[in-house]
Amino acid sequence: MDPDFSPLDDLLEAEDADGYLVDDTSHNSTQKYLSGFEAHDPFVTLYTPEKTILLVSALEYGRAKKQSRADEVRRVAEYDYRELVSEHGPAEAKARAHAEFLDEYDVASVLTPERFPLGPADGLRERGVAVEAEESDRVTEIRATKTDEEIEHVRAAQNANEEAMRAAENLIAAADVEDGTLVYEGAPLTSERVKEEIEVTLLRHGCGLDDTIVACGANAADPHDQGSGPLHADEAIIIDIFPRSKETGYHADMTRTFVKGDPSEEIRERFDLTHEALNAALDAVEPGVTGADVHDVVCDRYEEAGYDTLRSNATAETGFIHSTGHGVGLDVHELPRIASNGEELKPGHVITIEPGLYDPSVGGVRIEDIAVVTEDGYENLTSYPVELVV
Amino acid sequence: MDPDFSPLDDLLEAEDADGYLVDDTSHNSTQKYLSGFEAHDPFVTLYTPEKTILLVSALEYGRAKKQSRADEVRRVAEYDYRELVSEHGPAEAKARAHAEFLDEYDVASVLTPERFPLGPADGLRERGVAVEAEESDRVTEIRATKTDEEIEHVRAAQNANEEAMRAAENLIAAADVEDGTLVYEGAPLTSERVKEEIEVTLLRHGCGLDDTIVACGANAADPHDQGSGPLHADEAIIIDIFPRSKETGYHADMTRTFVKGDPSEEIRERFDLTHEALNAALDAVEPGVTGADVHDVVCDRYEEAGYDTLRSNATAETGFIHSTGHGVGLDVHELPRIASNGEELKPGHVITIEPGLYDPSVGGVRIEDIAVVTEDGYENLTSYPVELVV
Predict the structure, then answer these.
(1) Which of A250, B114, B186, B211 is the most exposed place for a label (fewest CB within 10 A)?
(2) Do the Cβ atoms of A378 and A372 come closer than 8 Å?
(3) Whether pLDDT at A195 is above 80
(4) Where on the tree of life does the source sit, at the highest rank (chains A, B) (predicted)?
């Protein structure tokens, strides 16, 4: 099933533009989404309300014909690209070929993503094509609503994610404690070692990943600290895993907090409160509610318990100091925002809910599930248990 | 030791520009190189002949101060970014903050990489800053010459690469053959399974990677085929591994060709000839020689033996149908080119030499080493043996 591109058609009409142009590799999720094609070198996608056309190198032509969602695939060679390069150099050759390509489809004006490349844009402008970067980032708005197929891709990545979390938890469970430090197979058990276990498990289940967070104690009090060094008993260890399926490109995202040994009463209270905030936020998820509403539920819960939030104190450095969640798809962070500026939730939105509390003197606690908004509420794609003590 | 940025100074002077501006994440190697900083979100680097200044979010400020090679690090918050966003939206807020930032350093005109983002560029132009994408991609030229430290980074990645190649070869060696298909632990040994072994081994040695090629038989006759499905006895299996160190960001690159069982006389001849071509090309590597000269050595060898090359036949689909090699560094493919348009080699260039022969009726054979150009020749960074039969 193809996504609903009508909001893009509306934008083109409102801005009086003939088409939407992307010039990027498929590492750019808007390119991958619009083209339905994966390639490491930049290629061009021209979207018009009538059809989508790809312009690729000869090398990618056969694969693009087979794999992409485009109605037509063209080759730069059809525009005498090699001859143009020898005569004018690669930048001008590209501009000439692209201008001719657009002209063939009667496209004299295009909108582009905000980060469309400047050199090619100026090259087209010099040849009379109107090129305008559009701020609204309409395709990312369209991407927020997932098809059933996309939801299955996220679910598959989340299954791999749970295997990886299990491997991490098992490693921590199997460790001994010596002088307050976790020890495994005769060596201190480090963040790095647990991350390696997570990443190897993900690979074995068809996923890669950019980064993993395994942060312990005071490290974990900074929500952006990736964690390093030996893990300690009786301290909170935050594990946040956000793998990408190598096959589909879709992500999952989940966080758990573990303590090996005996958590302090302070850690336990924060954990229980965070678990309540998670459940309260999930309960609030349904179409028509905004991401801001869901974020407010979490802030309410924390503030009632006496903690700072960024809502109650914009410069807070302890307490709940990030937003409640975000959309997940081809990008690990995408729309909608579950935050003070969060959009209205719609069926098919895939979102995280990830409340957390941070304080250097206590450590960090965060619990994150991933869920899909349904017609009448949500389905939680997470089945991993929420238990503090390993 | 800092790289020699004087060619960039020369360019700025020739083009009468005040600075060189990059707005990208550190996934862009020019950004990583100029800034010496890694961040997943876009940030700004302003290079001037006097100094390099970073403009980052508050979140990255502390880390940028510690880790980057910049002389100064500034925060967008210093330009009332939040207030600007509420008043004008994120795109205009960014343009205003960046324009003010440039003005503070008396920079009224900038050159940028060819793929600088269009929206921010137009935003600066509207505020009177002259912004021009420069075609020569001068920083990639500078990046071609590695410092001793960079060479050590490549060497470390190559060590991990050799461990991964060893793991792959061991897996093929341990397989049985049933009806011509490799079988391991009761299941057909597939390209996918060997890739998994390679990628897990790389992870265990601190490297990630984008892709791996494990291609057998007719698959391997297309140099860009990544390979899939069961591996077969008596057929050539090309394994091409190009990992990236997670710590340093530098790559290595190596290819070997293996046959499990008995290679045909045809495969053996092509393998031996390719090995000779590799050694002849390496022998030709020294400062002052061009990448084109080295490529010619390989073409000579193949053509003398009666094979097509792209030099003798630009549309050849069998024979030696790619270039001889490329630079390796923060990008797995970078300057210099070891190809018909290859640049003059200089001490500190890190290059691959990767001759190969392809024919769907025979399969593919490729052997690739990675080497650094020295004052009087080259040092081969590859120690993995070149042996066909496993």
Answers:
(1) B186
(2) yes
(3) yes
(4) Archaea
pLDDT single digits (tens) B151-193: 999 999 999 999 999 999 999 999 999 999 999 999 999 999 9
Å between A196 CA and nearest CA of chain B: 7
In the numeric block, which tokens belong to residue A217?
């104690």
| CA-based nearest residue in chain B for residue A341 | B86
The vertex-A111 CA angle with A109 and A117, nearest 5°, equals 105
- Calculate how close chain B gets to A377, using CA atoms only, in Å: 31
In order, the DSSP letters of A225-255 are ----SB-BTTSEEEEEE--EETTT--B--EE
B71 three-state secondary structure: coil
- Please state, in angstroms and rounded to a whole number, the distance separating the CA atoms of residues B371 and B129: 43
Q: Do B119 and A117 touch (CB under 8 A)?
A: no
Architecture of the domain made up of A145-380: Alpha-Beta Complex (3.90)
Instruction: Kindly provide the ipTM of the predicted complex, given to two decimals.
Output: 0.91
Q: In this structure, what DSSP letter does residue B137 have? A: -
| Angle value at C-alpha A133, between A129 and A134, nearest 5 degrees | 125
CB < 8 Å to A40, chain B: 210-211
- Six token digits for residue B154: 């490549």
Distances (CA, A) of B251 to A220, B196, B247: 31, 19, 11
B35-to-A21, B39, B43 alpha-carbon distances in Å: 30, 10, 10
B114:A118 CB<8 A: yes
Is A135 within 8 Å of B91 when comparing Cβ atoms?
yes
Q: Rounded to an integer, what is the distance from CA B225 to the centroid of its chain?
A: 18
Nearest CA to CA, how far is B302 from chain A (Å)? 23
Distance between CA B171 and CA B231 in Å, rounded?
Answer: 12
Q: In terms of residues, how long is chain B?
A: 390
β partners of residue B53: B46, B72
Chain A to chain B, count of Cβ pairs less than 8 Å apart? 74
Q: Give the model confidence (pLDDT) of A221-264 as tens digits.
A: 988 889 999 999 999 999 999 999 999 999 999 999 999 999 99
Shortest distance, CA B276 to any CA of chain A (angstroms): 28
Q: Tell me B99's DSSP state.
A: H
Looking at the complex, report in whole angstroms how far the Cα of residue A208 sits from the nearest Cα belonging to chain B.
9
Which positions ≥6 away from B39 have C-beta within 8 Å? B25, B26, B56, B60, B63, B64
- Interface of chain A against chain B, CB under 8 Å? 27, 40, 42, 59, 89-91, 112-122, 131, 133, 135, 196, 199-200, 203-204, 208, 210-211, 224
Q: Where are the domains of chain B?
A: 6-143, 145-380
The CA distance from A337 to A327, in Å, is 6
Which chain A residues are within 8 Å of B196, Cβ to Cβ? 203-204
Q: What is the mean pLDDT of the segment spanning A298-324?
A: 95
Q: State residue B1's pLDDT score.
A: 60
- Cα three-residue angle B36-B37-B40, rounded to 5 degrees: 145
* 3 state DSSP class of B269: helix
CATH tag, A6-143: 3.40.350.10
